Amino acid sequence: QVQLVESGGGLVQPGGSLRLSCAASGSIRDINSMGWYRQAPGKQRELVATISRSGTTNAYADSVKGRFTISRDNAKNTVYLQMNSLKPEDTAVYYCKAGITTVGRLVELPYWGQGTQVTVSS
């Protein structure tokens, strides 16, 4: 019933920028924390950034600190990832994650998007 859909991925040159979006829809009661993860070929999925319910507490992986910025718009049930100064090492499928309580139950469960491809290459 709940779906998360990522968008904004694509091909970009090193040093360029991309802005990823993830919109949640469905029978949502509340969305708590949200985050972005990525998985490169042959690698395990890793945390990129997380953001709290209020949008005031953010955390980033060391590899993206100073380059990426996570934000959210609760009115739109959307989380964003602004990626600047992109490097080839950032190439991966980026996944959105959200802790969501649905109208049918009070238990908060994690939901994942299907991912969007980001390729950084010259």
Give a verbal description of the structure:
This protein has 122 residues and is an all-beta fold. The chain is built from no helices and 11 strands. The protein has strands spanning 3-7, 10-12, 18-25, 28-39, 46-51, 58-60, 68-73, 78-83, 92-102, 109-112, 116-120. The strands form 2 sheets. Strands 2, 4, 5, 6, 9, 10 and 11 form a 7-stranded mixed beta sheet that branches. The protein is elongated, with a radius of gyration of 14 Å. The model has no long low-confidence stretch (mean pLDDT 96).
Helix content range? under 10%
From the alpha carbons, calculate the radius of gyration and give it in angstroms.
Answer: 14 Å
Structural class: mainly beta
Largest sheet: 7 strands, mixed
Helix/strand layout:
Blueprint: E1 3-7, E2 10-12, E3 18-25, E4 28-39, E5 46-51, E6 58-60, E7 68-73, E8 78-83, E9 92-102, E10 109-112, E11 116-120
Parallel strand pairs: 2-11
Antiparallel strand pairs: 1-3, 3-8, 4-5, 4-9, 5-6, 7-8, 9-10, 9-11
Key terms:
0% helix, elongated, 122 residues
Offer a quick outline of the entry.
The protein is mostly beta strands. Helices cover 0% and strands 57% of the residues. 30% of the residues are buried.
